[in-house]
Specification:
GO biological process, one term: DNA repair
CATH superfamily of the largest domain: Nucleic acid-binding proteins
Keywords: Cytoplasm, DNA damage, DNA recombination, DNA repair, DNA-binding
Oligomer: single chain
Number of domains: 3
Number of helices: 10
Structural class: alpha+beta
InterPro entries: DNA_helicase_Holl-junc_RuvA_I (IPR013849), Hlx-hairpin-Hlx_DNA-bd_motif (IPR003583), NA-bd_OB-fold (IPR012340), RuvA (IPR000085), RuvA_2-like (IPR010994), RuvA_C (IPR011114), RuvA_C_sf (IPR036267)
Number of strands: 5
Low-confidence stretches: 143-177
Region (Domain III): 179-230
Strand content: 15-25%
Helix content: 40-55%
Largest sheet: 5 strands, mixed, barrel
CATH architecture of the largest domain: Beta Barrel
Shape: globular
Domain Helix-hairpin-helix DNA-binding motif class: 73-92, 108-127
Distance between the termini: 47 Å
CATH class of the largest domain: Mainly Beta
Radius of gyration: 18 Å
Order of helices and strands: EEEHEEHHHHHHHHH
Length: 230
């Protein structure tokens, strides 16, 4: 399975990019946001990828971060939400916007994506809301390496295909407890739009009630404390 590729852009189409990796061309489908952010032909690029395997089809989808790749995989797990709809949501909201909408239960934001109806949007939020804190924690303090891809340290032309498609699921596992978990949770809540005061209060209370929690656990607990009452 193909989990990450790095090489040189050959050309960009309306919904995909062709990447040359040591003489082999990979057609990678991406969101409008990702395509707009990529360079021109001849420039280096590195993307995390997810390979969709069907009886009559093989399609490779590319993402700049593990968080975006993981959201794609999770969105695909929702009944009635396929690859096209998942890309539409990420194209409309980006990884951060998707995290924010799902964590806050804002199905109207999901519905704004092209081709997503209200029932599908509500299903996405209901099925994935509990998973949002873990995915959000994946992106905190992620190192940035070659071609702007977190976690990459080697030059793109030296990389080729190096990771299994299951890597994001492993990366999404709860991180080890860290002294910086409260600061990371506070940062995540700030990204969701909470005021510093209310976010700090919720994180402090969550940490006091469960000091052993990791970043994802603190985010989850703080969101419960911040949820409207009644």
């Amino acid at each position: 399975m193909i989990g990450r590729i790095a090489g040189v852009i050959v050309y960009k189409g309306d919904d995909h990019v062709l990447i040359d990796v040591r003489g082999v061309g990979y057609m990678v489908y991406c969101t409008d946001r990702v395509l707009a952010a990529l360079g021109r032909g001849g420039e280096a690029v590195a993307l995390y990828t997810d390979l969709l395997v069907r009886e009559d089809l093989l399609q490779l989808f590319g993402f700049p971060t593990l968080v975006e790749k993981e959201w794609f995989r999770l969105l695909m797990s929702v009944q009635g939400v396929g690859a096209k709809a998942s890309l539409a949501i990420l194209s409309a909201l980006g990884a951060d916007g998707t995290s924010r909408a799902i964590a806050l239960g804002d199905w109207n934001a999901i519905k704004a994506a092209k081709g997503i109806g209200p029932k599908s949007a509500q299903r996405v939020v209901n099925e994935l809301k509990d998973k949002a804190p873990t995915v959000m924690a994946m992106g905190i303090n992620a190192p940035v390496g070659a071609a702007g891809v977190p976690g990459s340290t080697a030059a793109p032309e030296d990389d080729a295909v190096i990771e299994a498609a299951g890597a994001p699921a492993q990366a999404a596992a709860a991180p080890s407890p860290s002294p910086s978990a409260q600061a990371e949770a506070l940062s995540a809540l700030g990204n969701l739009g909470y005021a510093p005061g209310e976010a700090a209060g919720a994180v402090a209370q969550a940490a006091g009630e469960a000091p052993e929690e990791d970043t994802a656990g603190l985010i989850r607990a703080a969101l419960r404390l911040l949820a409207p009452k009644g």
